[in-house]
Amino acid sequence: xxxxxxxxxxxxxxxxxxxxxxxxxxxxxxxxxxxxxxxxxxxxxxxxxxxxxxxxxxxxxxxxxxxxxxxxxxxxxxxxxxxxxxxxxxxxxxxxxxxxxxxxxxxxxxxxxxxxxxxxxxxxxxxxxxxxxxxxxxxxxxxxxxxxxxxxxxxxxxxxxxxxxxxxxxxxxxxxxxxxxxxxxxxxxxxxxxxxxxxxxxxxxxxxxxxxxxxxxxxxxxxxxxxxxxxxxxxxxxxxxxxxxxxxxxxxxxxxxxxxxxxxxxxxxxxxxxxxxxxxxxxxxxxxxxxxxxxxxxxxxxxxxxxxxxxxxxxxxxxxxxxxxxxxxxxxxxxxxxxxxx
Length: 342
Known about the structure:
Layout: E1 14-17, E2 24-27, E3 36-37, E4 44-46, H1 53-72, E5 76-80, E6 83-87, H2 89-98, H3 102-132, H4 137-146, H5 152-166, E7 171-174, H6 176-194, H7 197-204, E8 218-219, E9 226-227, H8 249-262, H9 264-269, E10 273-277, E11 280-284, H10 302-305, H11 307-332
Antiparallel strand pairs: 1-2, 3-4, 5-6, 5-7, 8-9, 10-11
């Protein structure tokens, strides 16, 4: 008998650790478009939505063609007191810097321009790097974290809120750039939804799964691979250091939570900006109706309907999570479990 070719082994069930609760469980073989969740904390382990690299490249090309029009063409045309004002993304960022808010301008610049541009460049690098045999690990690690910083949809919501506030004393007209910006936002959302970074890891850097249960198996928080360390204590696939828990993670979460709670009252009570129109000054705060009580027109308390309350609710839940993690570690007489506040 002559063997002409040897194919890859058939996929089989293997053991996997949850990156959220660290439980070791047996992950069955998944079919296409099937997802898997952790049996203990219900965190998503495998996502069935996956686009091919060629389709992601097509989306990246379309986004690259829309970017100049979405950023440089006017989004809105304002007719205020007989003066026409064309507002685009770059002009708005420059005005923030000119008015003394460079930090806010830098955040808008990164989330609305820098992160989408990096997304397109990363997809192009994956396509070219796969052909040329380049190192794709840094780009794959960056893509997992970059998905949280592409905030074109948040900027689009801000445009809608600003339009509602300005339409009382100015005439608004949509510009050419608004169509390009909406299209760019939709394409970026579709790309982020269907871009499965774990499947890209499996495609470019396949590793042998764990077929037997072993308490020494560790999960990598970078590429979510479950296996043993290499000789240097790193993940065998993405080469990031493997640790049983993030160093000082609970302490860092408490520090960030306490700092955010300290700035809660000043952010809602102090003056945020001063807008002057036709020789009339108005002070605008970010907490309108935060302390009002029920009236005949609004039977519910205003803080129940205020977005400020719902924005602070995750901080309270995060505080409960940190406290429960601290108590669980103290009751077991060991180091507290890892905790991360988003």
